[in-house]
Request: fold
Amino acid sequence: MPIYLETATISIPERQALIQAFPCFSNLTAEQSKTLALLMREVRYAPGEILVRQEDWVDSVYFIVKGEAEVSYLSVYKNKKSITPLAILRPGESVGLNDTGFFSASGKRTATVTASTALLLLLLDLKSLHAFLQNNKLESGMFAAAEQMLRMQLIKQSLPFGKLTHERLLWLCERVEDLAIPAGTVIFRQGDQGDRCYLIRSGKIEIIAEEADGSSHLLAVLKPPTLFGEATLVTQQPRNASARAIEDTQLLALSLEYLSELWEKEQKVADMFMTLMVDRSRPQRNPAVSEYPRTTPEGQTLVILKNPDKARYFKLSQEGWFIWQQMNGKQTLLEITLALANQYQVFSPNLVVALISKLAASGFISNIHLGNLGPKKMTAWQHCRARLRALLDFRLIFNNADVWLTFFYNKCGKFLFTRVGQLCLACISLGGGVVFLGAENHIATLLKTLHASGLILVCMLPLMLLTVVLHELGHALGTKAYGRQVHCMGLGWHWLRPIAFTDTTDMWLDTRGHRIAVNFAGLYANVLVAGLCSLLILLVPSLYLQVFLWLFALMTYINGFAMLNPAQDMDGYFIMMDYFEKPHLRQDATAWLMHQFPSAIKHPMRLVKSIPECSYWLACLIFLSVTALITFYVQGFVLKLLGLTPPHPLMVLLLPTLTVAFSSLRLIADIRQQD
Reply:
């Protein structure tokens, strides 16, 4: 570690002689060289210690008084690093300066300097040198270089720009504007429409909020290197407070034009601006939001927030509910964080910021409006990828679906939920299942003998969309049966696979049993439709239609079973999640498997305390086993239809094994993520 000497050992005349030996300081007067000599500090380095590292920021220059140092350069070629010695520096030479000024033109060290022997140096920091050059109006070129280096260091220290590349930092440095603000000057007023933000270089700024009755109160006092005035640029809203200089202040101003360009090209900067804006806010709850508390089986309290303006819902834990109650428009994020720590002994600013950001994005907070920052301009290749993705992942959304769905339910749908209706549906489902299994050989024979039977298989493909639509209609009617709203429905395809969806989030406000019933309603719709098609086989005389109905029933049964996959965000997982009242069941179960299961298996009584996690993995194993059996059944039917016999008996296990392996990919990914 360097040792800074408090007592000077090098006289002022010795320092002056050393300074004036450099061409860039040779024209200094005796008084000027003395002033510069007094700004220097003496420092010692032991052999082997590093003075400066390659790629570090230039923050000072050194003059060698005693000892030697080695200059080396680190290069990387094909991921291989090599260090090349460049020079030996001796007394009278410097680190960071050349004959005309700074050795570095970019603001970064161009090489590493290491003490070869014990070193005695004179250190002159960049700020002191810059101030000296400015006060004495010396070396305009050297002054400009020092100015640029200081600007880059200041911008780099500001939170939103901390991860900018050196090239982008140079670009930004050339576009900021220097402002000298006298004490007492108002920089902007509350209600103004802003077009620039400011970075404090020196001095102090006070931020003042003005109330409707004409009174005002101090919100904050800002010091270097703080960025302010950026919120109005992000939200495109008027200034929410006034800013005034407390003392003579130096600012760097950045206009919206250049800031927008930065947001478009640097996603990390856009994200940091969002975080900074939330961090400085005084969040206030949207008064239109309704609150619905609910108690879990474990006795914990959950609260569901409902935003009627945007038909959105948000589930809060006990800690989240406490944070929500603190959002009164008067407390800062820091005050909310400290209140949470005092109440629950949890100090987590990141948790508070993340929750407030999510609530603001969904419209639950009235005074934070997050803009849409980030890259907007795309290359031709990015445009092509975006268009292709849009074609392969298409959604057609029907808003206000509750209006016509309520009409349909009141006219005929509600009769399905009466006792008589449910008895009829149960008979159709059970009877249809028996007919389906019994008709297998009959359908196989027809497919072998009927002309153009292969065309029937092709016609089945478009009807895959009908099966998923009927499934979602079951969820929708189940939601209406409990008096809840369905805000939207939709259909489309994902990578050529048909999809449909129903917004049943209003069921969050209902009981656990009702939520589970609505999740089951979609599966029941599959079983019901498949059973009805199977029963119709007994009634229709057309052989082609019999084949068509049986194949459609098979497809509907398979689609319904696939929705039970607990490893995907489908009905099976949602049923388990609601039953155990664990919103993060999959993540918790995966973490338990990796970290607690090895010890729990040695002490079986511990498994009793992890029933939700054990049930999740048991459900996954059962699903994979049944998937293998269904695949084996369908494979046998197809082989019988084609009259083929596997060349080896074990070959019949290949397709079921591959199907199970494919179905396990999500589980494997979750486990690897926890590992």
About this structure: The chain has a mean pLDDT of 85. The longest helix spans residues 611-642. The longest strand covers residues 80-89. DSSP finds 25 helices and 23 strands in the chain.
